[in-house]
Amino acid sequence: MSAPGPQTAAASANPVLVEVTRGDMVESRHRAALAVVDAAGKVLLSAGDIERQVYPRSAIKQLQALALVESGAAEAFDCSEEEIALACASHNGEPRHVEVAGAWLDRMGLSAADLECGAHKPMGVAASEALLRAGESPTALHNNCSGKHAGYLTTALHLGAPLQVYIRIEHPVQQRILGILEMMSGCELRDAPRGIDGCGIPQIAIPLSHVALAFAQFANPVDQPEPRQAACERICAAMAAHPFLVAGSGRFCTRVMEATKGRVLVKTGAEGVFSIIVPEMGIGAALKVDDGTTRAAEVLAGRVLEKLNLIDDAARAELSDLLTQSVKNVVGKEVGQVRVAQDSPV
Amino acid sequence: MSAPGPQTAAASANPVLVEVTRGDMVESRHRAALAVVDAAGKVLLSAGDIERQVYPRSAIKQLQALALVESGAAEAFDCSEEEIALACASHNGEPRHVEVAGAWLDRMGLSAADLECGAHKPMGVAASEALLRAGESPTALHNNCSGKHAGYLTTALHLGAPLQVYIRIEHPVQQRILGILEMMSGCELRDAPRGIDGCGIPQIAIPLSHVALAFAQFANPVDQPEPRQAACERICAAMAAHPFLVAGSGRFCTRVMEATKGRVLVKTGAEGVFSIIVPEMGIGAALKVDDGTTRAAEVLAGRVLEKLNLIDDAARAELSDLLTQSVKNVVGKEVGQVRVAQDSPV
């Protein structure tokens, strides 16, 4: 009764790296690709088709924040370490995130009305519920990207560029970022497939191996011009010092950076992408779950850190519920797990 | 740089049937299997490995409701057509759903405290937000399965079986349902892989083709004993007459049953499953998205209905936003689509 799919689809299938169990059986399967590389582009660990182009989404906010720091904008506008961490964030919209974003804009004589990311309910469930209970509506400050957008405005002000339509690819800030992405990833990107991100900015497709390369460059920026070397270090230090601002209460990114004491910088992105920077090893990693599911991306990011021996016993104990995740039923009983696939090649 | 997965994983990969675009590129891909069969078990349409076992989850609530109707419990307790529709529901927890479930239990001298499904926030976003704004907490009546559980209690009362732990596989109600699943699917299921569903009841693994067969039997129950034939018809009529109660405002199941004027009965389940009953054609269908994603299951269910010529021009106009779904950014602009894959084999 079986009707196999077309040969081409089967031939290019990425391996199943994460599986979801329920009772006696694997219920769902997640295919993915991942690449760990050094700054010379040597692939240290991989699975799946790492030359396939992906939209790196919010997993490259650290790369986008380079424009803010290396242009001198952050210094000119006295950006704090907290603000730089928030520029790299997909935050929960918790009170502290909103406060840091608001104060930053305020200092520049701007406000939430200048952000072009739009308003959405806080990504953090508790924050979202608290807002509803208080009868309030979310503003653009609650948008998980509000720090990134505050960074764009800061850069635009510093460059003397228009403050409107800073999300368009033609805008000087986005052009700078495109140039940074090209240098860091080692790819020509002017003709790459392009789309619009959730917050309105351009998304540029990059082969997964080259996304990883960009983060290896970030970890070990010896081949980059000087203002960028210092900028990479400053951004890593900011994320390491303020993991809460990069995500929020209970979030994977925050908890992993806390448990690893900032030795690794991890960043999630929509549609199942993740980036990892390991400054002490001079390596970077990127992964993309084919179907775009966050639960699989998190478990896989954890596996990469395990493989790189970056999770010590204390961190493993702290992160056990993230490295293998529980599937719970409504009354809270564990009925299954999201785990690295038993026959995963990595 | 590519490292292909193990041969076995690639060989058994289901085809990509749904893809998610963003701008110029396909960003995410969903693999799936689907089977459309008649009551004799003849496969009329299929893709992927339809002999793989799946947990049919809430997509088989109609089959579970057979116990309520064919046992005589529904008649003995004067169940309305609305209550039978609600027994088949994964509802939104909107006021009307809660009201029907509450009144049903009340009539039997029972209450939300007798439901073993647990309480969760209403599945419907508007209902969930209204509850929060009102400062109220959800009860078990808001659980999307409350109607199904009310049906179990009704059946237990009628059978003189215990009202406690009716969710356990050993309970007479669950044993009846197991027998119904075996007869309808044509499978021995006593030793099948088993797990616990979100609402606490047993989930039994069934090959996808046999899930479809169970729904073909439902559509054309000529091989089933008589009380069941009438029960199948009564359940189909109830779902067709009350599509709102089966899901809720804006939901795929509700809108499809409304737009097709009850000619097809569709039912979603967690982890990317869907069932379809077409009484007028005497056929049934089932599908499972490998990665468990609802967006893909819905688009694929729509494709099956299109292939079966069950979507006329009026229905197509009404359902266009569900047959191909928009990916929108925060400010509401369409930036991509969830659509049937361009090279889908079906």
SSE blueprint and pairings:
2 copies of one chain form a homodimer.
Chain A: H1 7-11, E1 16-22, E2 25-38, E3 43-47, E4 53-54, H2 61-70, H3 73-76, H4 81-87, H5 95-107, H6 125-133, H7 146-159, H8 172-185, E5 194-196, E6 202-204, E7 206-207, H9 208-219, H10 226-241, H11 243-246, H12 252-259, E8 265-269, E9 273-278, E10 283-289, H13 294-307, H14 313-323, E11 325-328, E12 334-340
Antiparallel strand pairs in A: 1-2, 1-12, 2-3, 2-10, 4-7, 5-6, 8-9, 9-10, 11-12
Describe this structure in words.
The structure is a homodimer of 346-residue chains. Chain A is α+β, with helices and mostly antiparallel strands and 346 residues long. Chain A has helices at residues 7-11, 61-70, 73-76, 81-87, 95-107, 125-133, 146-159, 172-185, 208-219, 226-241, 243-246, 252-259, 294-307, 313-323, and strands at 16-22, 25-38, 43-47, 53-54, 194-196, 202-204, 206-207, 265-269, 273-278, 283-289, 325-328, 334-340. In chain A, the strands form 3 sheets. In chain A, strands 1, 2, 3, 8, 9, 10, 11 and 12 form an 8-stranded antiparallel sheet that branches. The first copy, chain A, has a two-stranded antiparallel sheet with strand order 4-7. At the A-B interface, α1, β1, β2, β3 and β4 of A face α1, β1, β2, β3 and β4 of B.
Helix content of chain A: 40-55%
Q: Please describe the biggest sheet of chain A, giving its number of strands, its sense, and whether it closes into a barrel.
A: 8 strands, antiparallel
Radius of gyration of chain A: 20 Å
Order of helices and strands of chain A: HEEEEHHHHHHHEEEHHHHEEEHHEE
Note poorly predicted spans of chain A.
1-10
Query: What is the largest interface, and how many residues per chain?
Result: A-B, 71 and 71 residues
Task: Based on Cα principal axes, name the global outline of chain A.
Answer: globular
Average predicted confidence as pLDDT of chain A: 96
- The CATH architecture of chain A can be named as 3-Layer(aba) Sandwich
Count of distinct strands of chain A: 12
User: What is the count of DSSP helices of chain A, taking H or I runs of 4+ residues?
Assistant: 14
CATH topology of chain A: Beta-lactamase
Number of structurally distinct domains of chain A: 1
What structural class is derived from the secondary structure elements of chain A?
alpha+beta
Counting copies of identical and different chains, the oligomeric state is: homodimer
What percentage of the residues of chain A does DSSP assign to strands (E)? Answer: 15-25%
End-to-end Cα distance of chain A: 33 Å
CATH class of chain A: Alpha Beta
